[in-house]
Amino acid sequence: MALDFTLDPPVDPVLRDGILGLWTDVTNANGSVGFVPPVSADEVRPELVRHLVAMAEGRARLLVGRDTDGEVAAAVFLTHNTHRLMRHWIWLYTVMVHPRHQGKGYGRDLLAAAADAARGMGGVTAIRLTCRGGAGLERFYESCGYKEVGRVPEAIRVADGDYRDDITMLLPLL
User: Fold this and answer.
1) What is the pLDDT of residues 11-68, one digit of tens each?
2) Is-contact 98 54, C-beta < 8 A?
3) Radius of gyration of the chain from its Cα atoms, rounded to whole angstroms
4) What span, in angstroms and rounded, lies between the C-alpha atoms of 76 and 110?
5) At residue 35, what are phi and psi to the nearest 5 degrees?
6) pLDDT-based confidence at residue 174 (cuts at 50, 70, 90)
7) Taking the CB of residue 147, how many other CB atoms lie within 10 A of it?
8) Checking CA distances to 167, which of 13, 35, 65, 153 falls within 20 to 30 Å?
9) Are 131 and 137 contacting, i.e. CB atoms less than 8 angstroms apart?
10) Strand pairing partners for 129?
């Protein structure tokens, strides 16, 4: 069974709550999506609102994957560069697959759908993302065609005495 991906879906309360639940569940399953577990939906909500505002302003787009029940199972935000010399590449933020769906290839499917969406954005020739070191995420992204192009040692503090590298990955689209 594959996910059904939609770029720029209409954001209604059901979708908003689905993304909020996804983000909370991914974080609480030790996912590296901007928070450290445990978190509540109330803690995640302000960050989701920032992404939704960026979408409303045309600075970001949303790609959502739904499972056969229509539930939000995966999501990623595609964010435009605002610098005039860097508009040929975009950022991927908050790459998420629900824990109940991990290990099914949906992460690869999500990244492939994001690359397809980026190719359709006119003039976009690459995708960049960052990931938190220490969990092997860079190996996953490399297996999907991304290359590590930068690393800042111990740039992320997840707890007192627990620092992780901030790793930049690049996927050329040409």
Assistant:
1) 999 999 999 999 999 999 999 999 999 999 999 999 999 999 999 999 999 999 999 9
2) no
3) 15
4) 8
5) -135, 170
6) confident
7) 12
8) 65
9) yes
10) 169
* String of DSSP letters for 1-33: ---EEEES----HHHHHHHHHHHHHHHHTT--S
The per-residue pLDDT for 165 is 98
By the 8 A CB rule, do 110 and 131 touch? no
| Strand runs labelled E in the chain | 4-7, 60-66, 72-80, 89-97, 126-132, 147-159, 162-172
Q: In what order do the strands lie in the sheet with 89-97?
A: 4-7, 60-66, 72-80, 89-97, 126-132, 162-172, 147-159
Three-point CA angle 49, 54, 55, nearest 5°: 95
Instruction: Say which amino acid occupies 63.
Output: L
CA–CA distance, 101 with 78 (Å, rounded to integer): 21
Q: Which two tokens stand for residue 142?
A: 């490399």
The amino acid that residue 129 corresponds to is L
Give the three-class secondary structure for 79.
Answer: strand
